Amino acid sequence: MNSGMPITSMRTTRMKLMQWRRRIVPDELGLGWTPFYMLGYLVFLFIPAIFDFSGGSERMWRGMPGIHLGATLATIVIFLPLYFAGFRMTAMRHRIACMLGVAVLGYALLPLNPFSHTYLIYAISSAAFIGGRLAHKVSWMVLLLLAFLLEIVLIGFPVFIFAITAIVSVAVFFSNHYYSENARKGAQLKLSHDEVRRLAALAERERIGRDLHDLLGHTLSLIALKSELAGKLVERDAAAARREIDEVTRVARDALSQVRRAVTGIRAAGLAAELASARLLLESSGVTFRYTLEELGLSPETETVLALGVREAVTNIQRHAHATRAEVGVERVAGHAVLRIVDDGRGSAIVPGNGLSGMRERIEALGGMLRVDSTPGRGTRVEIELPLPEPAPVERKNLSGAAGVP
Questions:
Q1: Based on the domain organization, do 194 and 177 belong to the same domain?
Q2: How many Å apart are CA 86 and CA 100, to the nearest integer?
Q3: Among 115, 205, 268, 293, which one is least packed by beta carbons within 10 Å?
Q4: Could you tell me the pTM of the whole model?
């Protein structure tokens, strides 16, 4: 029997579940399975069927015989489409309509089920997502609660039912409101980040275009002129034509060297810029990020390797670590540039992938070392060590002016 079949079947089932979930709750909301978990609160509707609430000489709560149970089940059938439609609707009026529909279910069921205020809590929680200003959302919450209070008084239910409902509703409303605001600010921050990167890429392309024009424009013009001159001299003065061709070869080689130097500069990644980008990426994901950068006079090759190391490590922190804090430090230690990246995430066993393998190859090509320490539950520590060129000796002169040490 093929042991891979159950795994394949599980993956297929999971994919189908994900597709089904996306059709009901759009992925762009970033809610995942949370709306489905929230349906667990519907169990409160059936508390009167489980417990017999009574007090004093008369019943404080009404029981829930079969007809009441049937009415409750009927309202659930109506509630579910309204509940999930609220996540798919984009227009404010449609969201308000779904909210009011759920609230009406609670009002209608209240004479038959004293725990129908569960629907009212669902309705008020959805008011936080209808859009508009906070005052507009709060006004809807107050209106729904006042209508519930009026019905409580008319039916003759204890007022503390309203008090409990109001406390829970207000807490859930503001929790959802702040969640919505944080999600909105996070989306704006991501858009700002993307715009900054787009503008930076545009500015870099323009700089590259200017540099290549300045670098190659004169050189290619000179090559064209000398090539044309050599062509005219071939028949009249072969030696002069040969000199011009040799000059074209020299100019072309010089241009090639200049282009290679320019491309090396273009490919080099700036460490300071990479650290700033890392801060923006991690803090937008809720990770506190700090870094220290000592001025070491790095060569372009060394700086590029360190910057790419920061990029790889920070990307792993953002995607996999589930960290709350991360720190990066760059310093000189015994003639080496040492880069340390530490996070307080969940940690895990190290499984070398393409990113880690590529990082190690780049570091070892420059004579450096890469150390990764990741302990489950204690975070991850990445340390990159690259040799630095020895500083040139400082020449001092004695009083007579001769070089040497006094």
A1: no
A2: 11
A3: 205
A4: 0.50
